[in-house]
Amino acid sequence: MVENTIGTAMYLAGHGSKTRPRLIDLQYQRVLRYRRALLRQDVFNRAFPVVFIDIRLPAFGMGHVTLNDVPRFVDLHREVENRRYDTVFMDVDEVPPRPTPDFESAFIRSLLESAGARVLNAFTDDEGAFRQELKERGGPNARDDDVTDSSDFVCFFPSLASEVSSTVLIRELQIPTPLQSDETHRIYDRIQGLKRLRPYSGGGIPFVEDRLLAEWRRLNREDAERAGSDSPDSQG
């Protein structure tokens, strides 16, 4: 007889504005990174999550939600009620900083927790696991506010970020090479460098955008040098 085990789930749903959407593939990578950080703390069900996807969260309706708009959420909610899953991961902007948000999101946590699930949101870093790992890797100057959807887009999808940058700057980069400024050369080199990056090769697992880590480590070194120069021994 096969034992019925309780698993975990991941809920992904497109949301954000039409001109600045929160991409589902990006949410997926952010949730996996957040889950890995939580695994270091060993505070939750370790089963790999089953993914439920809705293309778009319901439009803002003053708190009124038509669940027919999110059929996979309905399926997930039913499975939680049936004790199939006890933990649900997501990466949802639950409190949009606008007077009239573009979407409804509060219902996700409310309904799932009422049904008995533990909801862990990568966007708000519930439990502070990502923030802790960020400090461990990047040092005291590492700030989770620096890690945005934009920086994560570059981190997880560098080749696509390179293509987007090339498209945005297509006219500027068409200047003949002898006439290009040093700044233009640096931009071109950065775009080409992103195109060549292969963060997943050899089983690699990207964490945050490489230049963020480099900047934090630079600030850490400067702080250490200042602290050393200010010490009584250095002034002796």
Describe the structure.
- The protein is an alpha/beta fold.
- It has nine helices and six strands.
- The chain folds into two domains: 122 residues, 3-Layer(aba) Sandwich (Rossmann fold), CATH 3.40.50; 64 residues, no CATH class.
- Helix 5 crosses helix 6 and helix 6 packs antiparallel against helix 7.
- The model has no long low-confidence stretch (mean pLDDT 90).
- The CATH first-level class of the largest domain comes to Alpha Beta
Give the DSSP E fraction (strand runs of 2 or more residues).
5-15%
The number of helical runs is 9
User: Looking at the structure, what is the overall shape?
Assistant: globular
Overall strand count: 6
Tell me the count of domains.
Answer: 2
Mean pLDDT: 90
How helical, in percent, are the residues? 40-55%
The H-level CATH homologous superfamily of the largest domain, spelled out, is: Resolvase, N-terminal catalytic domain
Secondary-structure element series: EEEHEHEHEHHHHHH
Primary descriptors:
single chain, 236 residues, alpha/beta, Rossmann fold, 2 domains, two-stranded antiparallel sheet
In short:
The chain is an alpha/beta fold. The chain contains nine helices and six strands; from the N terminus they run E-E-E-H-E-H-E-H-E-H-H-H-H-H-H.
